[in-house]
Specification:
CATH superfamily: MFS general substrate transporter like domains
CATH class: Mainly Alpha
Radius of gyration: 22 Å
Order of helices and strands: HHHHHHHHHHHHHHHHHHH
CATH topology: Growth Hormone, Chain: A
Distance between the termini: 53 Å
Helix content: over 70%
Strand content: under 5%
Number of strands: 0
Number of domains: 1
Length: 448
């Protein structure tokens, strides 16, 4: 009769109980050991909700990170515009995507701070990105030439602004719902899942079995669905009301935020380090330009580059996340070293005419993307851990706005490339990566 009683009990379990059990199982699997500090630095009322919140973070981020890869402006959108007669717009993609997501944050931080529960801001931002991705898929299906170019640029601008809402709100929600020694694991695990999904997509492209334009349009449609689903899931997080003071108008918020650059040495060092490490994000288009002629119309080549980038994330993200929970400062140190070495090897290979070897450029991109994964996870965890709950949104907005301005200025590297060649720009990026190690070394251990 025992087995009958167990079966009856199982049938009587509510869906919420079953989902909570699955969340607990996923949480235990990913966090592995219990160091006795699982509720560190989060409200006590959310301690029992942490397994469910942790799993919701992982699933939501997995979907949005996969969507990012399916829409990748550096590869996917650039290839679409080039193939459909709008190549003159390609140079606008990365500046709009990156700076557009960062610059508005100082001005929207105050409004988001007025929201006691900021998960809704993230959910709205994710939903808007989904609508933009869906619009891009329709545009790629129906338009060509300048009409396609302007439509993609307009939608990418709106997508970038929506992303800025998510960026400002996410770290604050993460800090309130996941314990201090589990945040890197959550973001790293999500990046690993997303990388695995992107690898499958990259292999489909590389196979050459599908019409080259249809497969990327299908990818945009899935990106739209993933963003919309993630927004709904994130809205189900258990989040306590946070502080709402300081939600003034944009000018007042800017004035209040800027004083932290003078008062907070740790924030200054973090911004310097992150500014130098933008080299790891900017380098891929210049690396691809070294073999631009052979890449222009080759859908299989696009697949292999996506595959290299995704494999790097899959193999390194979880490790970077776990290391970040122990020392985000050392992760940034290692990422700077890895990025500098990868870019130096790329310069040497271009000067020695070794890039004719088919696998070499994907391998160099792979190594750079491992370093970039460390930059993204290390900077995210470090910023959350150096700021208390009431300052996280402000610190995030301030640092991202400064980086956005710097990204706009980096458009000057295109002029350098046109005058002296891509190898010179990559050499400058290598020096920036190595220089970031000095400021990272001076930062304190945020997890101590």
């Amino acid at each position: 009769m025992t087995w009958m009683n167990k079966s009856a009990n199982a049938q009587q379990q509510s869906p919420d109980t079953l989902s909570d059990s699955a969340a607990r199982a996923a949480y235990d699997l990913l966090t592995a050991e219990d160091d006795g500090r699982v509720c560190r630095d989060i409200p006590e009322a959310l301690c029992d909700e942490q397994p469910r919140n942790f799993s919701t973070h992982v699933l939501s981020l997995s979907l949005t990170k996969t969507a990012d890869a399916l829409l990748n402006p550096k590869l996917i959108l650039s290839w679409i515009l080039t193939t459909l007669g709008a190549s003159q717009f390609v140079g606008l993609l990365v500046p709009i995507r990156e700076a557009g997501a960062l610059l508005p944050q100082l001005f929207i931080a105050g409004r988001i701070r007025n929201m006691p529960r900021r998960k809704y801001a993230w959910a709205i931002g994710s939903g808007l990105q989904g609508l933009c991705a869906g619009g891009m898929a329709i545009a790629a299906l129906l338009l060509e030439g300048a009409a396609l170019g302007w439509t993609i640029i307009s939608l990418l601008t709106l997508l970038a602004l929506s992303r800025s809402i998510c960026s400002v709100s996410y770290k604050d929600v993460l800090g309130k719902t996941v314990g201090k020694t589990r945040r890197g694991t959550a973001t790293g695990s999500a990046a690993t899942v997303a990388a695995a999904m992107t690898i499958a997509y990259a292999m489909l492209i590389a196979s050459g079995l599908f019409d080259k334009i249809n497969i990327v349009i299908i990818g945009l449609i899935f990106a739209a669905l993933f963003w919309l689903t993630a927004g709904f899931l994130f809205s189900t997080l258990k989040e306590t009301a946070g502080a709402t003071e300081g939600g003034a108008n944009p000018i007042s918020v800017a004035r209040e935020n800027l004083r932290y650059l003078i008062d907070d040495r740790e924030l200054r060092l973090f911004i310097i380090t992150r500014s130098l490490l933008v080299s790891t994000a900017l380098a891929p288009p210049f690396m691809l330009a070294l073999k631009a002629e052979s890449m222009q119309d080759n859908i299989s080549g696009l697949g292999w580059l996506l595959l290299a980038s995704s494999l790097a994330s899959l193999l390194s993200s979880y490790v970077w996340g776990r290391l970040s929970d122990r020392s985000s400062r050392k992760v940034l140190l290692l990422a700077g070293l890895g990025g500098g070495l990868s870019l130096t090897l790329t310069v040497i290979a271009s000067q020695a005419d070794w890039l004719n070897v088919p696998w070499l450029l994907p391998f160099l991109l792979f190594s750079l993307m491992i370093a970039y994964g460390g930059v993204r996870l290390g900077r995210s965890v470090h910023l959350v851990d150096i700021a208390d709950q009431d300052k996280r949104a402000v610190y995030t907005a301030l640092s991202n706005t400064i980086i956005g301005i710097i990204l706009l200025l980096t458009s000057l590297f295109s002029i350098v490339a046109s005058l002296y060649g891509e190898a010179v720009v990559l050499a400058m990026f290598a020096l920036m990566s190595f220089a970031s190690m000095s400021s990272a070394y001076l930062m304190r251990e945020a997890q101590a």
